[in-house]
User: Fold Histone deacetylase domain-containing protein from Acinetobacter haemolyticus CIP 64.3 = MTCC 9819.
Amino acid sequence: MYREAILEAFQYASRWDADLIVYQAGMDCHQHDKYGSKWFTTALLFERDRIVFEMAKKMKIPLLFVLAGGYQPLEDLVPLHVNTFKAAHQIYFAEV
Assistant:
């Protein structure tokens, strides 16, 4: 479900001839967040980020991401944000 929504957003980006994608990598949807969804796991958030980075790279659209959201204790929230950096590194810098 979320994958299709991400792909649809990239279809719009390509139609609009986007020069830049600003991606708000929010964590308030995480399953342990008081405003989150019970099914939105850490693994799914990592996959969400990875898909966004992968599509931006594939379409050659520069991407700026910002860390956002999250109403968990800091020691639980920081690893979620670190995963966003790990996903970006995996897509943009990992050797093929």
In short: The chain has one domain: 1-93. The chain is about 55% helix and 10% strand. Residues 1-93 form one domain. The longest strand covers residues 21-26.
